[in-house]
TrEMBL record:
Gene source species: Cinchona calisaya
Boundaries of every Aspartate/ornithine carbamoyltransferase Asp/Orn-binding domain copy: 224-375
InterPro entries named in the record: Asp/Orn_carbamoyltranf_P-bd, Asp/Orn_carbamoylTrfase, Asp/Orn_carbamoylTrfase_sf, Asp_carbamoyltransf_Asp/Orn-bd, Orn/put_carbamltrans, OTCase_ArgI
Protein name: ornithine carbamoyltransferase
Family according to the record: Belongs to the aspartate/ornithine carbamoyltransferase superfamily. OTCase family.
Cellular compartment(s): Plastid, Chloroplast
Length: 379
């Protein structure tokens, strides 16, 4: 069963009252040749809070359930959740990421598919990697990116999301947003007439996981059939791994303290696809045995810093140190989405070890995102 048919709902952290219909289809062109295209059926995602209308005079809920066809009719797409796409599409995007990366690495500077195009980058949450990777990548492929920081727009406060979406769509060819509430990215995509890319929300981080998948393919040779063990908080990174596991088969384990598990509905939906083996455990030492990748993230994400001291106590025993990596085995790689608090969730020695691929992983943010942007723009 396709993952898209299963993922009819987001987790319990969201309301099930209002939904938005998203659809995706893939079409690739590289070096003048078209890659296979595939399409998947629409999938509904509930709202985190009351959905807004894109039309000032519309208040009927039914109007919010009707897909905006402008993007679909023009072949443009959004990139909001990995599970919006089927396996073939995800693998094609990753293949294209490798091709474009090779071009950039070779010094090729005549491939400019984004020439004459602009991208608006909305940052409710600041980030070094997200800003630099998107801005540099878009520039290297011929485009111009505009940074809009937390004080530039104040989306939803100074100006409504529906107005921001429609205004920016008239100035730009694509919008990337890094926000707190997942509802904000859904509202933005609903009202924008250009593609919207999810640069991170409190619920998921699809661009990061695409970069992670690319990195695993480069170093292990494949993603399918591997064992990925995440050690730490069941956060938006874990949700994104679960969404990927609903599309591509691999063994995913989340080892976290009790009370810090990922969203139950997201776990359940990923398991119901029957595509991947998924485990949630509270024993990191047992979890990492036989891992191809041991993955970590900060214990207190942005917006949780007031909990940092408490979390350090609760998460004792979940630090990725040299002993844990030894249990994983000599072939296990270490990955971290960064920024890292060295000496907290991971030791300095693990990050700097020969089997750490943290920095190739960080670089691949740009290459994976370039391929995502090419895909959603249909170029």
């Amino acid at each position: 069963m396709a993952a898209n048919a299963i993922f009819s709902q987001l987790p319990s952290i969201v309301s099930t009252k209002d939904t938005i219909s998203l659809s995706s289809a893939s079409s690739f062109a590289f070096s003048g040749q078209s890659l296979p295209s595939s399409s998947v059926s629409p999938v509904s995602f509930p709202a985190i809070r009351r959905r807004i209308s894109c039309q000032a005079n519309s208040s009927a809920i039914s109007s919010l359930l009707t897909p905006v066809n402008e993007k679909a009719n023009s072949g443009l797409k959004d990139f909001l959740h990995i599970s919006d796409f089927d396996k073939a599409t995800i693998l094609n995007i990753l293949d294209r990421a490798k091709e474009v990366k090779a071009l950039i690495k070779s010094g090729e500077r005549t491939y400019l598919p984004f020439k004459g195009k602009t991208m608006a980058m909305i940052f409710a949450k600041p980030s070094m990697r997200t800003r630099v990777s998107f801005e540099t990548g878009f520039y290297l492929l011929g485009g111009h990116a505009i940074y809009l920081g937390p004080e530039d727009i104040q989306m939803g406060k100074r100006e409504g999301t529906r107005d921001v979406a429609r205004v920016l769509s008239r100035y730009n060819d694509i919008i990337m947003a890094r926000v707190f509430a997942h509802q904000d990215i859904l509202d933005l995509a609903k009202c924008a007439s250009v593609p919207v890319i999810n640069g991170l929300t409190d619920y998921n981080h699809p661009c990061q996981i695409m970069a992670d998948a690319l990195t695993m393919i480069e170093h292990i040779g494949q993603l399918e059939g591997t064992k990925v063990v995440y050690v730490g908080d069941g956060n938006n990174i874990v949700h994104s791994w679960l969404l990927l596991a609903s599309v591509i088969p691999f063994h995913f384990v989340c080892a976290c303290p009790k009370g810090f598990e990922p969203d139950k509905e997201t776990v359940q939906k990923a398991r119901q696809t029957g595509i991947s083996k998924i485990e949630i455990t509270h024993d990191p030492k047992e979890a990492v045995i036989g891992a191809d990748v041991v993955y970590s993230d900060v214990w207190a994400s942005m917006g949780q810093k007031e909990e940092a001291a408490y979390r350090r106590q609760v998460f004792q025993g979940f630090q990725v140190d040299e002993g844990l990596m030894k249990l994983a085995g000599p072939k296990a790689y270490f990955m971290h989405c960064l920024p890292a608090e060295r000496g907290v969730e991971v030791t300095d020695g693990v990050i700097e070890a020969p089997n750490s691929i943290v920095f190739p992983q960080a670089e691949n943010r740009m290459h994976a995102q370039n391929a995502i942007m090419l895909h959603v723009l249909g170029v």
